[in-house]
Structure of G-protein coupled receptors family 1 profile domain-containing protein:
Amino acid sequence: MTNSNSTEEMLSVTRSFVPNIILDSIGIGLCIIAVCKTFIFIILILIRRQLTKSKDKILFLLSFNMYMSIFIFSLFLLDMFISMIKGHLYPDMSQINDDTLWCRLKVYLSTVALISSLYSTTIQALYRFFRITYYNRYFFYVNIYFYIFILSIQVIISSFQPLPILLIGDYQYEDYHCQINLTNGRGILMAAFLIWLLPVSITVVIYVYTLRYIRQNSSKFTQQQQTKINRNFIVIKRILWLIIFILVFGMPACSTTIVFYLFGYVGWWANHLTWLTFVLSFIGNHLKPANRLITNRIDRYLVKYLAYDLEKILRGSFSDHISKTCTKTDVSCLASDILCPWLGPRYQLNDHLKSCPYQQIRPI
């Protein structure tokens, strides 16, 4: 009877954790997606590491740095959700209690990876800044050793920033894992400043200054510089949206603390809401730069224009070839704006213009 009663009690306790278990399972699934996606991009970057141009090596290095940081952070999150679901499934098992120094070191290391991933966007912002404002000083955006040095500084800074939180003991065991308690106002404020606001603020300042420089000097750029700047400008806008997205998804932790101090209430779902939004922010927003890198690499392949049996055309220049240089593409007369109906291959355009009556009567 005793064994039967204890089994029933365990089942009853487990049933009370069903919502937690469901959210734990969702968290594990999202973490697995994040780990797999970042791992795939890391492999793709390593496959393409033998590039000859220094600027491409730098782009791949910066992307590798970002995805490796996200990969490590996602692994720690996966470990955390596994600990949580084990605790919610077997809440009475003493061995589940993991309130140890290693538990605090794990959350510290995961924080280092998180800060490193945020600083990776800062370094990308710095790279774009140098390419646009110091375009005539190649050392700042071509020298790969310069960026290896910067990445070394990133690792050091990312390791030191969360140390105060660890040393003053704000990492506590809660809900079968270690974290800053959401009711700990001091710890949350320190984390908000050291983990989020510092790297994100530096990134925003760099981008704002870059955009300001572009607007003030746009008339001075050559056509080639303008084309490069337009490409960088698109990337800048994407990363600014990424930063906004990260800030928005980082708000649940702070808002939970504010609600606690105002109303004295913290929902059972607060931890899950905080960590699930972290995972979603990284899954949804850190994929575009890699897509851009892969696309840039693919654009260098030579392709065949099947319509006219032309070979060895750069994939990235295919649209320009059709719209600007292909001699067999049909084009309109230059006098089409004054109703010339002619339409024919580009190589016949000059002959047509010599006899075009519309072109001859065009007003000066």
Observations:
- Residues 136 and 340 are 46 Å apart (CA to CA).
